[in-house]
Structure formats: C-alpha cells, structure tokens
Amino acid sequence: MPKLTIDHIPVEVPPGTSVLEAAKTAGIWIPHFCYHPALGSVGACRLCAVKLLDGPVKGIQMSCMLPAQDGMVVSTTDPEALKMRSLVIEWLMMNHPHDCPVCDEGGECLLQDYTVAGGHGIRRFEGKKRTHVNQDLGPHIQHEMNRCIQCYRCVRFYQEYAGGSDFGVMGSARRVYYGRFQEGTLESPFSGNLVDICPTGVFTDKTARFRARYWDYEMAPSVCPHCSLGCNTVPAARYRELLKTMARENPAVNGHFICDRGRFSNAAVNDPARPRVPLVDGEEVSWAAALDATMLRIEEFMELYGPGRLALIGSPRLPLEGGVLLARLAGLIGTEYLCYFAGRDEGERVAAAVSLLADGRTASMADVRKADCVVILESDLRDEGPMMLLAVRQAWRSGAPVFLVGKHAPLAQALAVSIEAIELSIIEEVPLAIFERAVVICGTRNNPPAATESLAHTDAKIAYLFPGPNAFGAGLLMKEHGAVALAEAVASGRVKGIIAVEADIPEALLAGVPFVVAADWLPTETVRRAQIVLPTAAWVETDGTYVTFEGRAQRFRKVMASGLPIRGLPARYHASPDKPAPLHPPRVHRSVSPGGELRPAWRFVAELIERCGGDAVTEPFVGRWERLRGLDPEGEGVMLWEF
C-alpha cells in the first residue's frame, strides 16, 4: 500500500487511491468541483491543485487525477498551490452572476464556500459577462445556466451513471451549454439528482423555489417510504410544510442518489385533506373522546358478535413499532384475525420470500452494483424499486451481463443497457454457476410462490422487492404470530369489525363489514368508510423503523412538527373566518398548532393496549424487539437475522 505524506501527516492508502481521496482519510479537505466519489475524476475544474515537494512527481498537480505513490510529499498549503486555486476561482467568477441573494443554492453552494475560502472578494474583470438562455426542464428542475462553471458533473451523472439520453453538453470553448436540444421535461427517473450533484445553482428544486434558505430548514436523517429499498434521505421542512427531500449517502443502500419518486412525492404530507382531527361518526372530537368511543364500541361489538370477530389490520407501510404493538393488542382482545396484508396472494408471496432470505442470501443494492451477472425475474423495477435500476446499470457498466426473465422489455430502455431477454419458466435455466457474484432480482408483485421456491436451488444472492417500506418487517411478524391475509379473513364470513392502522383496504373487502375504525395519515377509502377516524403522524412527523427488502432495520427521525402548513391555512383556523387566509399564523392562543392533533400510529395502538388492561407502553420497542435499541441513530441500520 502506498505511503505518502500530506501536510506533514503520514498517510497509507490502498493502491489506486487518488491524492485527493488520500487527503480525505487524513482529515484534509482539498477544494474540488468536478470530482465526485460516484463519478470519479476528469480533471476539468483545475481547482484541486496541490504542490508535490518530493517523490516520483513534483510541482503543481491536480490531486484528483494523481494516484498516490510511495514517497510523495504533498503540500495543500504551499503558496503556489494556494495561488493556483485562487486564480481558478477568479476566472470561474468572471462570468458567474452575483445573484447569491436570490439563488436557492445560497448557503449550500460549493462555489460560494470556495470563493470565500480562497480569499476572492474583489472583482478585477471589467468586461461583459457571458450569458445564456435558460430552458424549461419540467415541473421539478429549475434551470439557471448562467451559474454554470463547466464541471461536467451533471452530464456525467445523467448520461454515464443513469443512462439518460435527453440531456447533455453542447457547444465548445466558452460557449459550452448543458441542457436539452429542445425544452421539455427531463425523462430520466433520476433527474432530480442534478439538484444534489451540481456544485452551484444551475439546477435547483423548482418545487421548493424561493421558499427557504438552507439554514431555515428543519432536517433530520430519514428513510424513503415509497418502496422497499429503504433509500436514505434528508427531508427539509419549514413552517410545518415538507419542502423538499435530499439524498443522504449510505454506501450499503442507495449510495449517493435517490429516485425522483422519493424526491418529489411530498404532496401527500402537505395535503390539507389529510385526516388531521379525530372523528366519531363524522363529528370532530378530542383524542380522549375518540379513544373512549373506540373502546365503548369494541365492548358493544363483543356483546353483539362475540369474541374473535374483530380483525386488526396493519400494512407494509406501517412502521415496525406499530406492527409489533398490533400483535400485542391482538392477544389482549383475543381476536383470531391479525392481518398485515390485504390480499392473500401478496401475504403468501412475502412470507415465502422472507423464509427464503432468512438464510443470509439476501443481496443489498451495493451487492447488485458489484455483481458480475444480474438476472431480473418478472419484475418491473421502474415501478417496484427505481433505485434498483441504477444499481443494475452500474453492474452492467462494469461488464456484468443482464438477463431479463419475463415480459418487461421496457427495462432495457429505462436502463440504457444491453439486456438479453430470455423466455424461461424457471430460474435454473440461467447459467448462474459460471459467475462468482451473480444476483437474482425479483418482486412479489408478479412472481408466484412457485417461482420463489425455484430460487432456493440457486447459489446466487437474491434481491427480493417487497410491496412497501416495512413489508419485510410485516412478513417477519406474520410468520411469528401466524397472521392471515385480510381477504382470507373476510372470506370466512366471521369478520364483522375492523381496526385498521395505516392500512389500505380495498373497497370490496369493506363492503360487508359494519364496524370500521381507521387510524391513518392518508385519506384512504378505509378512512372514508370508517365510523371512527384517528389521525396519525406521517413518517416525517415522528420517529420510527422500517425493515428494508434485505432485512435491514433503519431508523427515521422526526423532521417537523405536525400541523397544517402555514401557507394556505383554511379560514376556519383564523379569528375572522369570513376573510381569506393570510400568509400569517392565526392570532389565536392554542396548545397545539392547527391540524396538529396527530399521534404516531404506535401511540394509538399503545393507548388501546393500556385501556384493554395491558402494561403501559412508554417506548415503541417492546418484548424481544428491544434489541433494536442498538440501531445507529443516523439510520444506517443493522440486520435483523438474530430475531
């Protein structure tokens, strides 16, 4: 391993490590624009200049392009290196607009930081600045081409890393332009990463435009709830409104990026139509009154129909804490029907997949990126787990063949890779034995249990995509408690009442059930049909745990307080209901914010447990799940196989 000295600090790094990365291991930050850990080096920005004082190479060099070698003596503070970096900043600022006060990137802009750090504060250039015409790139991405510093990060990500073809670089010399041949919405399902990857304000989040500065945001480490992959995110909120979602690096899960679904699906959290106050027969009541009414009607239900006729329903999107306590409540009530899945087929597929993966054969997205062969078995990755598409593409870029078993040919276009489509009925026909790091990707939506059984006879690792952010956790609980699918319970004719906790129940299954209690934060059909509605907190309004498709338990943290966003408060929350709602908080003294009478789903279940005579629940982790207290507070997660 090469040994070198950087700013008088001895450093030893693996072969092939650049001087820039070697400096990071020693805690030394070398300014750079074009380099990115996921994209590598191109030496385009010339900002990472260092001075090599001794060794096989000497003089001013670009640290991102220079492999670390034995005997190198590197200085990042040499006057020549400092002068080089300051001049680079100055020529980049020659054409850069001085619009920091109105730029959404202000406060999180690398150019802004390096300009200050480099000491550039006086403009010597008196010529006319180069200007460009911006493009409309769709509803999500704002384009401000005049801020570009030609680092090529956007094109390298969009075309090379993500496989997009409708965005690129045009022109030459000082007329270089990054955009589309014609205006239009970006087609890649990963286009939102341009916002994170751009070191200046060329690409910003249009959905949060002019809403807040970086230092105004309420932020916390979180986990994306829109599929089972568990991508790590940082939601940003202000004034009880979720403004935007940013990617959070986790090498074992999503790497540096997230998909557009996870980035731009904030409308449901901010929706004024969300359940925000408890309802009993359509009338607004307090939480205590709603819980009292729930217990009273449960008692009446038991007298009318007898024990065992009430079903408790969870779902793959219910956090682990709520699912664990729901099983405990089922024991106290004495019901025969504890359900975590609505459809029988869905429950059987998840249970079969959990059993298959319990022997440690699960593949993470990092495993997929490093695979030497990928088989996609009857799965529409763009719908079931978009970031898995990106992982498959990285494997293909490294030379891994990709086989498609099934009918989802559009995957080849989405990936921009060469996929060999093979019409096979069983996975054994794919020649996996000749590969060392083969991965089979399949999903529960299209694959019957028989297909899952065929995977048991392969030696490849398996990435099984589930129908929700905590479907793996629900599958574990289903196996542990012998839970059944709701469709099966309703078909028996014995179910006459339902308590649904963040569960999406088809209207057909609700038709013959006279008693429904719904606790949810989405305005689902179950909520509309329920006699008692308890509003719960969304994932950004509480702490919780999701178990990803690979059995990795990840914590998400509370980002913002519950309540209606200040922007667009209904008039009924103001002192003068006859006037339109102004952009100002209501001048009314209250103990909670308007629409803030929300509680985590696990807290609602805990209240019922206590009212049924169970022990008080002061924390969400109970029983043998207490081992989850050891989770990384930053949400990187641990595996659950010891359970």
From TrEMBL:
Domain of life: Bacteria
One GO BP: ATP synthesis coupled electron transport
Limits of the 4Fe-4S His(Cys)3-ligated-type domain: 80-119
Cofactor entry: [2Fe-2S] cluster; [4Fe-4S] cluster
The UniProt record lists the keyword Iron-sulfur: yes
Any Gene Ontology CC annotation: membrane
Protein name: NADH dehydrogenase
Lineage of source species: Bacteria, Pseudomonadati, Thermodesulfobacteriota, Desulfuromonadia, Geobacterales
